[in-house]
Amino acid sequence: MLFFAIVSLGAVATTANPVYTPREIERQARDSRAKLIVAHPDLLPKLSSGLNLPILVIDSDSGTGKRSSSHCPAVSYLSDAERLSAGHVPPPVHIRQTDTATLLYSSGTTGASKGVILSHLNFIASAIQTNSDADRLGETDLCFFVVTPFFHVYGLSFALFAQLQRGNTIVTIPRFNLVDMLKAIQEYHVTNLPLVPPIMLALAKQDVALKYDLSSVIEITSGAAPLGKETAEEVCQRFKIPDVRQVKIRVHSPLFLYTQNACI
């Protein structure tokens, strides 16, 4: 909700890894020239008071949940903001597709983490290409189980933006656990699984996966890192998944490049 609210106002969203250290968060906030921090209450201790930025804490809808103490200045709560803004109509904003929507930061494997600009057009193009196969096949009412983090381009663009834009259902859990994922797939009749290679390997090797009904799944995609052909084929054969594929995401590109179809 907050991501779409930010970009709909013509502002720019930059997303941070929740396991970042306070120093890493501070560096990204300064590098991106952030004006406001939106945070889960559990992450407040990581936010440096030296940033001197207003902080909006995501509390419960009712505002009755426990409020964390913080040494940071100007801490406010989402539930309060919603009450205070009731009836407020934001001024009209003209947004061009070439305007910046997000500033996502690289993982830093080649040095310091770098901010990568993605425009509104990048997200639109990615959503169109991501959903092109489903459109061509006439697939509707799909259900995606999303374990890939939403601060990463894979989860934010491929899973969240593209699927909500199309009206598909998204199922997620606060923290990954293989059994919890398998239970969710069975309970919600998940049709699509955007995963990463370590989870693919767990599906291929761990016997607990055979205890759950995964017959609703019609497609598994693996991204964020290379996936071995043998692992893809083993998952495909073990669960009789119609389509297992690897997706290569270039964070600087508006396109998703699909490669290595293990089975169709």
Index terms:
264 residues, Rossmann fold, alpha/beta, single chain, disordered C terminus, 11 strands, globular, 2 domains
Strand content: 15-25%
Report the radius of gyration as a whole number of Å.
Answer: 20 Å
pLDDT under 50 segments (min length 5)? 248-264
Strand order of the largest sheet: 8-9-10-11
Label the overall shape: globular
Could you give the count of β-strands? 11
Q: What string, H for helix and E for strand, traces the elements in order? A: HHEEEHEEHHEHEHEHEHEE
Portion in helices:
25-40%
CATH class of the largest domain: Alpha Beta
Examine the secondary-structure arrangement and name the CATH architecture of the largest domain: 3-Layer(aba) Sandwich
Q: What does this protein look like?
A:
It is a single chain. This protein is an alpha/beta fold and 264 residues long. The protein folds into two domains: 2-87, no CATH class; 119-263, 3-Layer(aba) Sandwich (Rossmann fold), CATH 3.40.50. 33% of the residues lie in helices and 19% in strands. The strands form four sheets. The chain has a four-stranded mixed β-sheet with strand order 8-9-10-11. α6 links the parallel β6 and β7 (169-171). α4 crosses α6. The longest helix has 14 residues, at 153-166. Mean pLDDT is 81; it is low at 248-264.
In terms of topology, how is this protein built?
Elements: H1 2-8, H2 22-31, E1 37-39, E2 55-57, E3 75-77, H3 78-84, E4 100-105, E5 115-119, H4 120-130, H5 132-137, E6 143-145, H6 153-166, E7 169-171, H7 178-188, E8 192-195, H8 197-205, E9 219-222, H9 229-239, E10 243-249, E11 256-263
Helix pairs in contact: 4-6, 8-9
